[in-house]
Amino acid sequence: MKNLLFLFSFVILFISCSDNIGHNSKISECGGFKVDNFIKKAVCVDNSPKKIVKLNPDEDKCKDYLKWEYNESSKVLSLTHLNSYLNCCGEHSIYVSEDSNNSYTITEDDEPEGVMGARCSCMCTFSFYTEIHNVKKESIKINLKVDVEEEAEVETLLNNSVIDLTQGENSGKILIREFFSMGSCNE
């Protein structure tokens, strides 16, 4: 029976990951990305090393951003959600779907840790990184959602935010929100 349950879980995981168009996805530990040191990774990712955007400690603290970088020759759009403010105890994954031509939705999942569904009494900032391949140099729309298991609804952080790749810029950032932290962010 355990083998059958394991096989069923694997098949469901495989099916759910097969529609994910995000590549080289990575998720940081609490505090954001460290230099080339990724501890947690999303399900269904490969381990190819890629350039990861890091925080500017003074400029970016207590601000929730989506940073983007476009490589015109490879047609890869790199997206890093910096400072996602979540419970310190959680298991995270990232999923990217194409809604329509030039419109993408990134969904970040936050579930309690382990079998017992553990949560902590503290909040942390996490960073989520993913790439979308074969992106044409056009204007695209990005939707960013966070699905916290205990919440009744999925939170929409960005809704049809435009990244216009025709304007000659190959990188930029979109401010999502500022937040209050009991830690070192707000002084």
Describe this structure in words.
- The chain is mainly beta and 187 residues long.
- It has one domain (20-178).
- Helices cover 9% and strands 45% of the residues.
- The chain is built from 1 helix and 9 strands; from the N terminus they run αβββββββββ.
- It has one helix at 2-18; strands at 22-27, 63-71, 76-87, 91-100, 103-111, 123-132, 139-148, 155-164, 171-178.
- The strands form 2 sheets. The chain has a 5-stranded antiparallel β-sheet, with no helix packed on it. Strands 4-5-7-8 form a 4-stranded mixed β-sheet, with no helix packed on it.
- A hairpin with a 2-residue loop joins β4 and β5.
- The longest helix has 17 residues, at 2-18.
- Residues 4-17 and 35-55 have low confidence and may be disordered.
Rg (C-alpha, Å)? 17 Å
Poorly predicted spans = 4-17, 35-55
Domain unit count: 1
| Coarse morphology | globular
The H/E string reads HEEEEEEEEE
Strand order of the largest sheet: 1-6-3-2-9
Question: Quick one: how many beta strands?
Answer: 9
Strand content: 35-45%
Helix content, binned percent: under 10%
Major sheet characteristics: 5 strands, antiparallel
User: Mean pLDDT, nearest integer?
Assistant: 78
List the total number of helices.
1
Q: Which structural class do you get from the secondary structure elements? A: mainly beta
Q: Termini separation (Å)?
A: 55 Å
